[in-house]
Amino acid sequence: MASPSPDLMSTIVSLCKRRGFIFQSSEIYGGLNSCWDYGPLGVELKRNVKEAWWRSMVTRRRNIVGIDASILMHPKVWEASGHLSGFTDPLVDCKVCKERFRADHLESLEKCPKCGGQLTEVRKFNLMFKTFMGPIEDQSATVFMRPETAQGIFVNFLNVQTASRLKPPFGIAQIGKSFRNEITPGNFTYRTREFEQMEMEFFVPPSEDEKWYQYWKDARFQWYKDYGIKTENLRMREHEKDELAHYAKACADVEYKFPFGWSELEGIANRTDFDLKRHSEFSGKSLAYFDEESKQHYFPYVIEPAAGADRATLAFLIDSYSVEGEGKDARTVLHLHPSLAPIKVAVLPLVKRDGMPEKSEKIYNDLLDNSIKSFYDHNSAIGRRYARQDEAGTPFCVTVDSQSMQDDTVTIRERDTRAQYRVAASSVVEVINQKIKEAQK
Ligand code: GAP
Questions:
Q1: What DSSP designation does 50 have?
Q2: Are 229 and 321 in contact (CB under 8 A)?
Q3: Residue 400: what pLDDT?
Q4: d(CA 306, ligand 1 centre) in Å
Q5: 41 CA to centre of ligand 1 in angstroms
Q6: Which residue's CA lies nearest to atom 25 of ligand 1?
Q7: Which atom belonging to ligand 1 lies closest to the Cα atom of 180?
Q8: Torsion over CA: 68, 341, 187, 388 (sign)
Q9: What CA–CA distance (Å, rounded) separates 368 from 111?
Protein backbone atom coordinates (compact mmCIF):
# COMPACT_ATOMS: atom_id res chain seq x y z
CA MET A 1 0.00 0.00 0.00
CA ALA A 2 1.57 3.33 -1.06
CA SER A 3 1.63 6.00 1.60
CA PRO A 4 -0.86 8.83 1.24
CA SER A 5 0.19 12.04 -0.48
CA PRO A 6 2.29 14.33 1.75
CA ASP A 7 -0.19 17.15 1.28
CA LEU A 8 -3.07 15.00 2.40
CA MET A 9 -5.31 17.91 3.33
CA SER A 10 -5.37 19.44 -0.15
CA THR A 11 -5.81 15.97 -1.67
CA ILE A 12 -8.87 15.44 0.55
CA VAL A 13 -10.27 18.88 -0.29
CA SER A 14 -10.01 18.21 -4.02
CA LEU A 15 -11.40 14.66 -3.70
CA CYS A 16 -14.34 16.11 -1.75
CA LYS A 17 -15.10 18.59 -4.51
CA ARG A 18 -14.56 16.17 -7.41
CA ARG A 19 -16.74 13.42 -5.95
CA GLY A 20 -19.41 15.69 -4.46
CA PHE A 21 -18.67 15.33 -0.76
CA ILE A 22 -18.06 18.99 0.12
CA PHE A 23 -18.11 22.22 -1.90
CA GLN A 24 -17.13 25.74 -0.98
CA SER A 25 -20.18 27.78 -0.03
CA SER A 26 -21.35 30.35 -2.62
CA GLU A 27 -18.47 29.27 -4.85
CA ILE A 28 -19.77 31.09 -7.94
CA TYR A 29 -19.43 34.36 -5.97
CA GLY A 30 -15.89 33.59 -4.89
CA GLY A 31 -16.88 31.62 -1.79
CA LEU A 32 -17.60 32.71 1.76
CA ASN A 33 -14.72 32.25 4.16
CA SER A 34 -15.05 29.15 6.36
CA CYS A 35 -18.47 28.13 5.03
CA TRP A 36 -18.92 24.79 3.27
CA ASP A 37 -21.77 22.92 1.57
CA TYR A 38 -22.18 19.16 1.72
CA GLY A 39 -22.86 17.62 -1.70
CA PRO A 40 -24.72 14.37 -2.54
CA LEU A 41 -22.09 12.01 -1.07
CA GLY A 42 -21.15 14.33 1.80
CA VAL A 43 -24.69 14.80 3.02
CA GLU A 44 -25.18 11.02 3.17
CA LEU A 45 -21.87 10.54 5.00
CA LYS A 46 -22.61 13.26 7.57
CA ARG A 47 -26.17 11.97 8.10
CA ASN A 48 -24.72 8.50 8.70
CA VAL A 49 -22.22 9.92 11.22
CA LYS A 50 -25.06 11.65 13.07
CA GLU A 51 -27.20 8.51 12.94
CA ALA A 52 -24.32 6.39 14.28
CA TRP A 53 -23.94 8.85 17.17
CA TRP A 54 -27.69 8.93 17.86
CA ARG A 55 -27.91 5.14 17.73
CA SER A 56 -25.10 4.76 20.22
CA MET A 57 -26.16 7.63 22.53
CA VAL A 58 -29.98 7.50 22.41
CA THR A 59 -31.58 4.62 20.52
CA ARG A 60 -29.68 1.88 22.29
CA ARG A 61 -29.91 3.37 25.78
CA ARG A 62 -32.76 3.13 28.21
CA ASN A 63 -31.82 6.27 30.16
CA ILE A 64 -30.98 8.81 27.43
CA VAL A 65 -33.61 10.77 25.49
CA GLY A 66 -33.33 13.39 22.77
CA ILE A 67 -34.54 16.92 22.17
CA ASP A 68 -34.39 19.45 19.35
CA ALA A 69 -34.29 22.95 20.84
CA SER A 70 -34.46 26.20 18.89
CA ILE A 71 -31.26 27.95 17.83
CA LEU A 72 -32.45 31.35 19.04
CA MET A 73 -32.98 31.46 22.79
CA HIS A 74 -33.88 34.06 25.39
CA PRO A 75 -30.88 36.44 25.72
CA LYS A 76 -30.78 35.80 29.46
CA VAL A 77 -29.72 32.22 28.73
CA TRP A 78 -26.32 33.55 27.60
CA GLU A 79 -25.98 35.79 30.64
CA ALA A 80 -26.66 32.86 32.94
CA SER A 81 -24.38 30.46 31.05
CA GLY A 82 -21.50 32.94 31.20
CA HIS A 83 -21.19 33.20 27.42
CA LEU A 84 -22.03 36.90 27.31
CA SER A 85 -19.16 37.84 29.60
CA GLY A 86 -16.77 34.94 29.21
CA PHE A 87 -17.06 33.40 25.74
CA THR A 88 -14.23 35.47 24.32
CA ASP A 89 -10.93 34.96 22.55
CA PRO A 90 -8.00 37.36 22.98
CA LEU A 91 -7.42 39.19 19.71
CA VAL A 92 -4.58 41.31 18.27
CA ASP A 93 -4.33 43.10 14.92
CA CYS A 94 -1.21 44.00 12.97
CA LYS A 95 -1.10 47.78 12.52
CA VAL A 96 0.79 47.35 9.23
CA CYS A 97 -0.62 44.38 7.28
CA LYS A 98 -3.97 44.39 9.17
CA GLU A 99 -3.82 40.62 9.71
CA ARG A 100 -5.75 39.46 12.78
CA PHE A 101 -4.46 36.81 15.23
CA ARG A 102 -5.57 34.99 18.34
CA ALA A 103 -3.14 36.32 20.93
CA ASP A 104 -3.01 32.95 22.70
CA HIS A 105 -1.85 31.29 19.46
CA LEU A 106 1.21 33.58 19.08
CA GLU A 107 4.60 32.85 20.58
CA SER A 108 5.33 36.54 21.14
CA LEU A 109 3.23 39.70 21.14
CA GLU A 110 6.28 41.82 20.22
CA LYS A 111 5.68 41.87 16.46
CA CYS A 112 3.45 40.51 13.70
CA PRO A 113 4.54 36.96 12.76
CA LYS A 114 3.66 37.70 9.13
CA CYS A 115 5.25 41.08 8.35
CA GLY A 116 7.07 42.06 11.55
CA GLY A 117 4.79 45.09 12.06
CA GLN A 118 3.60 46.40 15.42
CA LEU A 119 0.63 44.64 17.03
CA THR A 120 -2.30 46.31 18.79
CA GLU A 121 -3.09 45.77 22.47
CA VAL A 122 -4.87 42.49 23.24
CA ARG A 123 -8.65 42.90 23.08
CA LYS A 124 -11.32 40.47 24.14
CA PHE A 125 -13.59 39.42 21.30
CA ASN A 126 -16.95 37.74 22.01
CA LEU A 127 -17.52 34.81 19.69
CA MET A 128 -21.31 34.90 19.66
CA PHE A 129 -23.11 36.05 16.52
CA LYS A 130 -25.71 38.71 17.23
CA THR A 131 -28.88 39.42 15.35
CA PHE A 132 -32.18 41.23 15.96
CA MET A 133 -35.58 39.71 16.54
CA GLY A 134 -38.41 41.59 14.84
CA PRO A 135 -38.31 44.73 12.72
CA ILE A 136 -36.62 47.12 15.16
CA GLU A 137 -32.86 46.81 15.41
CA ASP A 138 -32.24 48.07 18.93
CA GLN A 139 -30.61 46.59 21.98
CA SER A 140 -33.83 45.23 23.42
CA ALA A 141 -34.32 43.13 20.27
CA THR A 142 -30.83 41.59 20.32
CA VAL A 143 -30.67 37.81 20.24
CA PHE A 144 -27.73 35.46 19.77
CA MET A 145 -27.17 32.46 17.54
CA ARG A 146 -26.41 29.66 20.00
CA PRO A 147 -22.68 28.92 20.33
CA GLU A 148 -23.40 25.45 21.78
CA THR A 149 -26.43 23.17 21.76
CA ALA A 150 -25.94 22.35 25.46
CA GLN A 151 -27.89 25.32 26.82
CA GLY A 152 -31.07 24.20 25.04
CA ILE A 153 -30.76 21.02 27.10
CA PHE A 154 -30.11 22.72 30.45
CA VAL A 155 -33.08 25.09 30.23
CA ASN A 156 -35.32 22.10 29.37
CA PHE A 157 -33.91 19.89 32.12
CA LEU A 158 -37.05 19.81 34.26
CA ASN A 159 -39.45 19.72 31.29
CA VAL A 160 -37.74 16.61 29.97
CA GLN A 161 -37.21 15.01 33.36
CA THR A 162 -40.86 15.44 34.33
CA ALA A 163 -42.26 14.39 30.96
CA SER A 164 -40.02 11.33 30.71
CA ARG A 165 -40.06 10.44 34.43
CA LEU A 166 -36.31 9.82 34.46
CA LYS A 167 -34.12 9.67 37.55
CA PRO A 168 -30.41 10.53 37.66
CA PRO A 169 -28.30 9.12 36.20
CA PHE A 170 -29.98 9.99 32.90
CA GLY A 171 -29.07 11.93 29.79
CA ILE A 172 -30.53 14.36 27.26
CA ALA A 173 -28.99 14.42 23.79
CA GLN A 174 -29.20 16.87 20.94
CA ILE A 175 -27.76 17.29 17.46
CA GLY A 176 -27.91 20.71 15.85
CA LYS A 177 -26.22 23.75 14.40
CA SER A 178 -24.10 26.09 16.48
CA PHE A 179 -22.44 29.33 15.49
CA ARG A 180 -19.18 30.96 16.60
CA ASN A 181 -17.58 34.01 15.10
CA GLU A 182 -14.16 32.32 15.18
CA ILE A 183 -11.20 34.67 14.73
CA THR A 184 -9.13 32.11 12.88
CA PRO A 185 -11.37 29.55 11.14
CA GLY A 186 -9.58 27.15 8.85
CA ASN A 187 -8.32 23.71 7.94
CA PHE A 188 -11.32 23.02 5.70
CA THR A 189 -14.34 21.98 7.81
CA TYR A 190 -12.27 21.60 10.99
CA ARG A 191 -12.92 25.09 12.37
CA THR A 192 -15.83 26.95 10.84
CA ARG A 193 -18.23 29.65 11.98
CA GLU A 194 -21.33 27.52 11.40
CA PHE A 195 -21.10 23.88 12.41
CA GLU A 196 -23.10 21.00 13.80
CA GLN A 197 -22.68 19.64 17.30
CA MET A 198 -23.68 16.30 18.81
CA GLU A 199 -23.94 16.86 22.55
CA MET A 200 -25.28 14.87 25.45
CA GLU A 201 -25.72 16.14 29.00
CA PHE A 202 -25.66 13.28 31.49
CA PHE A 203 -27.19 14.23 34.86
CA VAL A 204 -25.80 12.28 37.81
CA PRO A 205 -25.91 12.37 41.62
CA PRO A 206 -22.98 14.65 42.62
CA SER A 207 -21.18 11.83 44.42
CA GLU A 208 -21.05 9.79 41.18
CA ASP A 209 -19.48 12.44 38.93
CA GLU A 210 -16.00 10.91 38.70
CA LYS A 211 -17.27 7.44 37.90
CA TRP A 212 -19.41 8.74 35.04
CA TYR A 213 -16.69 11.08 33.77
CA GLN A 214 -14.44 8.05 33.32
CA TYR A 215 -17.30 6.02 31.79
CA TRP A 216 -18.03 8.62 29.10
CA LYS A 217 -14.37 9.20 28.29
CA ASP A 218 -13.98 5.46 27.60
CA ALA A 219 -17.26 5.13 25.72
CA ARG A 220 -16.63 8.07 23.44
CA PHE A 221 -13.06 7.05 22.65
CA GLN A 222 -14.31 3.58 21.74
CA TRP A 223 -17.02 5.00 19.42
CA TYR A 224 -14.43 6.46 17.04
CA LYS A 225 -12.58 3.15 17.02
CA ASP A 226 -15.78 1.20 16.41
CA TYR A 227 -16.45 3.25 13.30
CA GLY A 228 -13.01 2.62 11.87
CA ILE A 229 -10.59 5.32 13.07
CA LYS A 230 -7.16 3.74 13.53
CA THR A 231 -6.12 3.52 17.17
CA GLU A 232 -2.72 5.07 16.46
CA ASN A 233 -4.46 8.21 15.17
CA LEU A 234 -6.52 8.73 18.34
CA ARG A 235 -5.52 9.86 21.79
CA MET A 236 -7.17 11.19 24.94
CA ARG A 237 -5.74 14.40 26.36
CA GLU A 238 -6.68 15.57 29.86
CA HIS A 239 -6.88 19.38 30.18
CA GLU A 240 -4.52 21.27 32.47
CA LYS A 241 -6.29 23.24 35.20
CA ASP A 242 -5.58 26.58 33.45
CA GLU A 243 -7.19 25.33 30.21
CA LEU A 244 -10.54 24.48 31.77
CA ALA A 245 -13.66 26.37 30.67
CA HIS A 246 -15.29 28.53 33.37
CA TYR A 247 -17.90 25.84 34.11
CA ALA A 248 -15.68 22.74 34.17
CA LYS A 249 -14.15 20.78 37.03
CA ALA A 250 -12.38 18.46 34.58
CA CYS A 251 -12.23 18.03 30.82
CA ALA A 252 -10.53 15.70 28.38
CA ASP A 253 -10.35 15.85 24.61
CA VAL A 254 -10.49 12.96 22.21
CA GLU A 255 -7.85 14.09 19.74
CA TYR A 256 -7.25 12.92 16.18
CA LYS A 257 -3.97 13.08 14.32
CA PHE A 258 -5.11 15.39 11.50
CA PRO A 259 -2.61 16.14 8.71
CA PHE A 260 -2.12 19.55 10.43
CA GLY A 261 -1.34 17.93 13.82
CA TRP A 262 -3.11 16.42 16.84
CA SER A 263 -6.37 18.36 17.32
CA GLU A 264 -9.62 18.08 19.25
CA LEU A 265 -12.41 15.91 17.89
CA GLU A 266 -14.60 15.92 20.96
CA GLY A 267 -14.51 17.19 24.55
CA ILE A 268 -15.79 15.30 27.59
CA ALA A 269 -16.35 17.67 30.50
CA ASN A 270 -17.48 17.51 34.09
CA ARG A 271 -19.64 20.66 34.16
CA THR A 272 -20.65 20.10 37.81
CA ASP A 273 -23.98 21.74 38.79
CA PHE A 274 -22.86 25.07 37.33
CA ASP A 275 -25.46 25.38 34.55
CA LEU A 276 -28.53 24.16 36.44
CA LYS A 277 -27.71 26.45 39.36
CA ARG A 278 -27.04 29.48 37.19
CA HIS A 279 -30.29 29.05 35.22
CA SER A 280 -32.19 28.65 38.48
CA GLU A 281 -30.63 31.85 39.76
CA PHE A 282 -31.18 33.91 36.59
CA SER A 283 -34.69 32.65 35.79
CA GLY A 284 -35.96 32.52 39.35
CA LYS A 285 -37.26 28.98 38.65
CA SER A 286 -35.51 26.19 40.46
CA LEU A 287 -34.11 23.45 38.24
CA ALA A 288 -33.28 21.27 41.25
CA TYR A 289 -34.28 17.62 40.99
CA PHE A 290 -36.59 16.20 43.67
CA ASP A 291 -35.39 12.81 44.85
CA GLU A 292 -38.43 10.73 45.90
CA GLU A 293 -36.39 8.41 48.10
CA SER A 294 -34.57 10.95 50.23
CA LYS A 295 -37.38 13.56 49.84
CA GLN A 296 -34.67 16.11 49.11
CA HIS A 297 -34.05 18.52 46.27
CA TYR A 298 -30.58 18.55 44.74
CA PHE A 299 -28.78 19.85 41.64
CA PRO A 300 -27.34 16.92 39.65
CA TYR A 301 -23.80 17.16 38.29
CA VAL A 302 -23.41 17.02 34.54
CA ILE A 303 -20.99 14.96 32.47
CA GLU A 304 -20.98 16.22 28.90
CA PRO A 305 -19.58 14.43 25.85
CA ALA A 306 -19.61 17.21 23.19
CA ALA A 307 -18.69 16.18 19.65
CA GLY A 308 -18.71 17.95 16.29
CA ALA A 309 -20.50 16.29 13.37
CA ASP A 310 -18.34 18.12 10.83
CA ARG A 311 -15.07 17.34 12.59
CA ALA A 312 -16.00 13.70 12.99
CA THR A 313 -17.00 13.50 9.31
CA LEU A 314 -13.66 15.05 8.30
CA ALA A 315 -11.72 12.62 10.51
CA PHE A 316 -13.59 9.62 9.07
CA LEU A 317 -12.83 10.85 5.54
CA ILE A 318 -9.13 11.42 6.22
CA ASP A 319 -8.62 8.21 8.16
CA SER A 320 -10.31 6.07 5.52
CA TYR A 321 -8.30 7.51 2.65
CA SER A 322 -5.63 5.40 1.00
CA VAL A 323 -3.90 5.07 -2.33
CA GLU A 324 -3.31 1.46 -3.33
CA GLY A 325 -1.17 0.02 -6.13
CA GLU A 326 1.55 1.75 -8.12
CA GLY A 327 1.80 3.93 -11.23
CA LYS A 328 -1.13 3.66 -13.61
CA ASP A 329 -2.66 0.93 -11.42
CA ALA A 330 -2.81 3.23 -8.39
CA ARG A 331 -6.34 3.61 -7.09
CA THR A 332 -7.84 5.76 -4.39
CA VAL A 333 -9.96 3.97 -1.82
CA LEU A 334 -12.06 5.35 1.00
CA HIS A 335 -12.27 2.49 3.50
CA LEU A 336 -15.35 3.98 5.15
CA HIS A 337 -17.18 1.82 7.66
CA PRO A 338 -20.24 0.26 5.90
CA SER A 339 -22.62 2.08 8.28
CA LEU A 340 -21.03 5.41 7.37
CA ALA A 341 -20.49 4.87 3.63
CA PRO A 342 -22.74 7.21 1.59
CA ILE A 343 -23.61 4.48 -0.92
CA LYS A 344 -23.75 0.90 0.31
CA VAL A 345 -24.02 -0.96 -3.00
CA ALA A 346 -23.27 -0.27 -6.65
CA VAL A 347 -25.08 -2.47 -9.16
CA LEU A 348 -23.09 -2.96 -12.34
CA PRO A 349 -24.04 -4.95 -15.46
CA LEU A 350 -20.82 -6.32 -16.97
CA VAL A 351 -21.90 -5.13 -20.42
CA LYS A 352 -24.73 -2.96 -21.67
CA ARG A 353 -26.59 -5.72 -23.55
CA ASP A 354 -27.90 -9.32 -23.41
CA GLY A 355 -30.47 -8.50 -20.74
CA MET A 356 -27.82 -7.58 -18.13
CA PRO A 357 -28.95 -3.95 -17.67
CA GLU A 358 -32.57 -5.08 -17.15
CA LYS A 359 -31.56 -7.72 -14.60
CA SER A 360 -29.33 -5.17 -12.82
CA GLU A 361 -32.15 -2.63 -12.73
CA LYS A 362 -34.34 -5.17 -10.99
CA ILE A 363 -31.72 -5.78 -8.28
CA TYR A 364 -31.17 -2.05 -7.97
CA ASN A 365 -34.90 -1.47 -7.44
CA ASP A 366 -35.02 -4.23 -4.83
CA LEU A 367 -32.19 -2.58 -2.90
CA LEU A 368 -33.86 0.85 -3.04
CA ASP A 369 -37.21 -0.63 -1.98
CA ASN A 370 -35.40 -2.02 1.05
CA SER A 371 -33.97 1.42 1.92
CA ILE A 372 -30.40 0.45 1.03
CA LYS A 373 -28.79 3.49 -0.59
CA SER A 374 -27.51 2.15 -3.90
CA PHE A 375 -26.22 3.29 -7.25
CA TYR A 376 -26.58 1.91 -10.78
CA ASP A 377 -23.84 2.37 -13.36
CA HIS A 378 -23.46 0.81 -16.79
CA ASN A 379 -20.96 3.23 -18.31
CA SER A 380 -17.31 2.38 -19.09
CA ALA A 381 -15.18 -0.69 -18.38
CA ILE A 382 -15.94 -2.67 -15.23
CA GLY A 383 -12.49 -1.91 -13.72
CA ARG A 384 -13.10 1.82 -14.00
CA ARG A 385 -16.53 1.46 -12.47
CA TYR A 386 -15.08 -0.46 -9.49
CA ALA A 387 -12.45 2.27 -9.13
CA ARG A 388 -15.10 5.01 -9.07
CA GLN A 389 -16.95 3.18 -6.31
CA ASP A 390 -13.75 2.59 -4.30
CA GLU A 391 -13.12 6.32 -4.39
CA ALA A 392 -16.66 7.03 -3.17
CA GLY A 393 -16.20 4.55 -0.31
CA THR A 394 -18.88 2.10 -1.54
CA PRO A 395 -18.27 -1.15 0.37
CA PHE A 396 -20.05 -3.56 -2.01
CA CYS A 397 -20.47 -3.90 -5.78
CA VAL A 398 -22.92 -6.35 -7.34
CA THR A 399 -22.01 -7.42 -10.87
CA VAL A 400 -24.40 -9.04 -13.31
CA ASP A 401 -22.61 -11.08 -15.98
CA SER A 402 -23.41 -13.77 -18.57
CA GLN A 403 -23.51 -16.49 -15.90
CA SER A 404 -26.18 -14.45 -14.10
CA MET A 405 -28.38 -14.73 -17.18
CA GLN A 406 -28.13 -18.55 -16.97
CA ASP A 407 -28.19 -19.46 -13.30
CA ASP A 408 -29.60 -16.28 -11.70
CA THR A 409 -26.52 -15.66 -9.54
CA VAL A 410 -24.49 -12.44 -9.28
CA THR A 411 -21.01 -11.55 -8.05
CA ILE A 412 -20.55 -9.52 -4.89
CA ARG A 413 -17.22 -7.69 -4.73
CA GLU A 414 -16.01 -6.34 -1.41
CA ARG A 415 -14.14 -3.04 -1.49
CA ASP A 416 -11.60 -3.67 1.29
CA THR A 417 -10.47 -7.20 0.47
CA ARG A 418 -11.49 -7.21 -3.20
CA ALA A 419 -12.88 -10.67 -2.46
CA GLN A 420 -15.52 -11.79 -4.96
CA TYR A 421 -18.17 -14.48 -4.47
CA ARG A 422 -21.41 -15.50 -6.11
CA VAL A 423 -24.82 -15.39 -4.47
CA ALA A 424 -28.37 -15.91 -5.75
CA ALA A 425 -29.71 -12.67 -7.28
CA SER A 426 -32.79 -13.02 -5.09
CA SER A 427 -30.64 -13.00 -1.91
CA VAL A 428 -28.67 -9.77 -2.59
CA VAL A 429 -30.79 -7.63 -0.24
CA GLU A 430 -30.50 -10.19 2.54
CA VAL A 431 -26.72 -10.68 2.10
CA ILE A 432 -26.03 -6.93 2.04
CA ASN A 433 -28.28 -6.27 5.05
CA GLN A 434 -26.47 -9.01 6.94
CA LYS A 435 -23.04 -7.59 6.03
CA ILE A 436 -24.01 -4.09 7.16
CA LYS A 437 -25.51 -5.44 10.36
CA GLU A 438 -22.38 -7.46 11.17
CA ALA A 439 -20.23 -4.34 10.75
CA GLN A 440 -22.58 -2.14 12.80
CA LYS A 441 -21.62 -1.56 16.39
N1 GAP B 1 -20.91 22.36 25.08
C2 GAP B 1 -19.48 22.25 25.13
C3 GAP B 1 -18.85 22.68 23.90
O4 GAP B 1 -19.46 23.31 23.05
P5 GAP B 1 -16.58 22.70 22.63
O6 GAP B 1 -15.31 21.91 22.92
O7 GAP B 1 -16.44 24.16 22.49
O8 GAP B 1 -17.56 22.32 23.82
C9 GAP B 1 -17.60 20.76 21.26
O10 GAP B 1 -17.27 22.11 21.36
C11 GAP B 1 -17.24 20.21 19.89
O12 GAP B 1 -17.88 21.00 18.88
C13 GAP B 1 -15.75 20.29 19.56
O14 GAP B 1 -15.04 19.19 20.09
C15 GAP B 1 -15.78 20.25 18.05
O16 GAP B 1 -15.92 18.92 17.57
C17 GAP B 1 -17.06 21.03 17.73
N18 GAP B 1 -16.70 22.42 17.41
C19 GAP B 1 -16.49 23.44 18.28
N20 GAP B 1 -16.17 24.57 17.62
C21 GAP B 1 -16.17 24.26 16.31
C22 GAP B 1 -15.91 25.00 15.11
N23 GAP B 1 -15.63 26.31 15.14
N24 GAP B 1 -15.98 24.35 13.93
C25 GAP B 1 -16.30 23.03 13.87
N26 GAP B 1 -16.55 22.29 14.96
C27 GAP B 1 -16.50 22.89 16.16
A1: H
A2: no
A3: 98
A4: 7
A5: 23
A6: 191
A7: 23
A8: negative
A9: 60
Q: Which domains does the chain have, with CATH numbers?
A: 7-74+136-317 (3.30.930.10), 343-439 (3.40.50.800)
Indicate left, alpha or beta for 258 from its phi (over 0: left) and psi (-120 to 50: alpha): beta
Residue 3 is predicted with a pLDDT of 45
Condensed to tens digits (0 to 9), the pLDDT of residues 54-103 reads: 999 999 999 999 999 999 999 999 999 999 998 888 999 999 999 989 99
Q: 71: CA distance to ligand 1 center in Å?
A: 15
**Does 310 sit in the ligand 1 pocket, CB within 6 Å?**
yes
| Ligand 1 atom nearest 197 alpha carbon | 12
Q: Residue 212 pLDDT more than 90?
A: yes
Closest C-alpha to 271, from 176, 174, 201: 201
pLDDT digits (tens, 9 = 90+) for 7-53: 999 999 999 999 999 999 999 999 999 999 999 999 999 999 999 99
Query: What would the DSSP string read from start to end of 101-133?
Result: EEGGG-S-SSS-TTT-PPBPPPEEEE---EEES
Looking at residue 329, its pLDDT comes to 86
Atom of ligand 1 nearest to the CA of 264: 14
What spacing in Å lies between the alpha carbon of 236 and ligand 1's midpoint?
Answer: 16
Q: How far is CA 373 from the centre of its chain?
A: 20
Which residues share a beta bridge with 238? Answer: 252
DSSP string over 363-430: HHHHHHHTT--EEE--SS-HHHHHHHHHHHT--EEEEE-HHHHHH-EEEEEETTT--EEEEEGGGHHH
The preferred substitution site among 77, 129, 172, 197 for testing ligand 1, maximizing ligand atoms within 8 Å of CB, is 197
Radius of gyration of the chain (CA): 25
